[in-house]
């Protein structure tokens, strides 16, 4: 039996994938609409393998995973840690599977217009303006509310 105070977090990975034309890969989720490829990390799976698998499952393409760009902590309802990476398209034709309804390469402006969910749009906007730092955001849903924003690389200086 699980104790009420035992921590339980869902671990999620996502990736902002760009192709050689600097277009962004979006997938259309059945419930959330257009977003970057993302999904849950499976048991005994590392984050990099999980994000490669998620992109392949949702869009049908292979990617090279680059740097970790952001970490989100959803604190309610439920708890989730979302690790977002930058990636580069390697090969394959867009071929959505059971995990997504559609996949498309779009320019940045069009991507921001297509993503309707406030959470997903904020996530996309942050990744599009990535400056080499690792951003951290803590938020809750219903309604969407941002609680904390930090640059993880600059955090030690902020505490001094």
UniProtKB/TrEMBL annotation:
<keyword id="KW-0460">Magnesium</keyword>
<dbReference type="GO" id="GO:0016787">
    <property type="term" value="F:hydrolase activity"/>
</dbReference>
<keyword id="KW-0378">Hydrolase</keyword>
<dbReference type="InterPro" id="IPR020084">
    <property type="entry name" value="NUDIX_hydrolase_CS"/>
</dbReference>
<protein>
    <submittedName>
        <fullName>NUDIX hydrolase</fullName>
    </submittedName>
</protein>
<dbReference type="InterPro" id="IPR000086">
    <property type="entry name" value="NUDIX_hydrolase_dom"/>
</dbReference>
<feature type="domain" description="Nudix hydrolase">
    <location>
        <begin position="7"/>
        <end position="128"/>
    </location>
</feature>
<dbReference type="Pfam" id="PF00293">
    <property type="entry name" value="NUDIX"/>
</dbReference>
């Amino acid at each position: 039996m699980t104790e009420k105070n035992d921590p339980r977090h869902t671990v999620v990975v996502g990736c902002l994938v760009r192709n050689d034309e600097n277009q962004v890969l979006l997938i259309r989720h059945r419930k959330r609409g257009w977003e970057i490829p993302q999904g849950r990390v499976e048991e005994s799976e590392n984050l990099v393998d999980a994000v490669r698998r998620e992109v392949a499952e949702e869009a049908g393409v292979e990617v090279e995973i680059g740097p970790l760009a952001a970490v989100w902590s959803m604190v309610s309802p439920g708890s989730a840690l979302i690790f977002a990476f930058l990636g580069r398209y390697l090969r394959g034709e867009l071929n959505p599977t059971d995990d997504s309804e559609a996949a498309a390469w779009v320019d940045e402006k069009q991507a921001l217009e297509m993503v309707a969910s406030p959470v997903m749009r904020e996530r996309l906007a942050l990744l599009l303006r990535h400056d080499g730092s690792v951003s951290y955001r803590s938020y809750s849903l219903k309604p969407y509310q941002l609680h904390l924003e930090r640059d993880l690389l600059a955090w030690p200086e902020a505490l001094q």
